[in-house]
Amino acid sequence: MQSIAKKPLEYIESLSEDRKEAILKIRSAIFQNLPKGFEEVMNYGMLGYVVPHSIYPNGYHCDPKLPLPFMGLASQKNNISFYHMGIYAEPQLLDWFISEYPKHVKSKLDMGKSCIRFKKMNEIPFALIGELVGKLTPEKWIELYESTFRK
Q1: Which of 13, 31, 78, 145 is least surrounded by CB atoms within 10 angstroms?
Q2: SS (H, E, C) the chain
Q3: Would you say the pTM of this structure is higher than 0.90?
C-alpha cells in the first residue's frame, strides 16, 4: 500500500513503532553514506532517493516530470523493502552485494531485481546497506542509467 504522505517525516510518523525504528536506522545508514547530490523525497508513496532535476534535467524516462530515481525505502505489509537501482543496473555491484550479505545476516537473502526485502526487523544489515549506498555517485548513476535504461 502506497502512503499518501507528502514529506518523508510525515511518512515515518505514520509507521508503527517497530517499523519506524527500523526505517529510521536504515535512513540513518543512508544519510551517513549517501554521496552528495542525491536528495530524499517522497516518491511512489515511499521514501525516495533521487537525482534532482537541477543535476539531471531530463528526469525519469517513464515520467520526465519526476526526478531520476535511485533508491526507495518502504514499509510494506509483510516486510521493509529497500530498492536500489544500482544493483539492478550494475552486475558487479549485485555480485558484491550478494557475496557480502551472508557476512552480515544469517538468514537467506530475499531479493528481487532491485528490491531487498527484510522480514525480520532484528536482521537488517544496516552497515551493509550504508556501504551499498555509498558505492555510486549521482554522476556514476546517471552514466549507468543512460547506458542501461535509455537506449
Answers
A1: 78
A2: CCCCCCCHHHHHHCCCHHHHHHHHHHHHHHHHHCCECEEEEEECCEEEEEECCCCCCCCECCECCCCEEEEEEEECCCCEEEEEHHHHHCHHHHHHHHHHHHHHCCCCCCECCCEEEECCHHHCCHHHHHHHHCCCCHHHHHHHHHHHCCC
A3: yes
